[in-house]
Amino acid sequence: MQFLAISRMRTDLFSDADFAPLLEDEAQRARTLYIEGAVRQIWHRGDERGACSLLEADCEGAAREIIGSLPLVKAGMLELVNLIPLLPYRGFGPRS
């Protein structure tokens, strides 16, 4: 099952200097999750600092674990704003 995870950086509580030491570890964890097939795509948000990620997981709990494994989430510097389960679009399926 796929999930759309929408997150935001806690810039209200942390400065760029606070984020800097964790950014390489964050990128490495994202690469690992991508290689493992848990993360399909990641986009930077255009409206505020944060990301939207397309996740592959068996259930919502597993999707939350994927996001929770990110160093910025563990540090409380990135929060999950919304986790949306995605269902197939029936319009592309066979017609009766």
Highlighted features:
alpha+beta; 4 helices; 32% helix; Alpha-Beta Plaits; 4-stranded antiparallel beta sheet; 96 residues
Give the topology.
Layout: E1 2-9, H1 16-19, H2 23-36, E2 39-44, E3 50-56, H3 60-68, H4 71-74, E4 78-86
Antiparallel strand pairs: 1-3, 1-4, 2-3
Class based on secondary structure composition and strand pairing: alpha+beta
Written as H for each helix and E for each strand, in order along the chain, the element string is EHHEEHHE
Report mean pLDDT, rounded to a whole number: 96
- Tell me the Rg in angstroms: 15 Å
Q: Could you state the CATH homologous superfamily?
A: Dimeric alpha+beta barrel
* Second CATH tier, the architecture: 2-Layer Sandwich
Given the C-alpha coordinates, what overall shape results?
elongated
Helix content: 25-40%
CATH topology: Alpha-Beta Plaits
Structure description:
- Strand 2 and strand 3 (50-56) form a beta hairpin.
- Helix content is 32%, strand content 31%.
- The protein has 4 helices and 4 strands, in the order E-H-H-E-E-H-H-E.
- It has one domain (2-87): 2-Layer Sandwich (Alpha-Beta Plaits).
- It has helices at residues 16-19, 23-36, 60-68, 71-74; strands spanning 2-9, 39-44, 50-56, 78-86.
- The chain is elongated, with a radius of gyration of 15 Å.
Structure described in brief:
With 96 residues, this protein is an alpha+beta fold. The protein has helices at 16-19, 23-36, 60-68, 71-74, and strands spanning 2-9, 39-44, 50-56, 78-86.
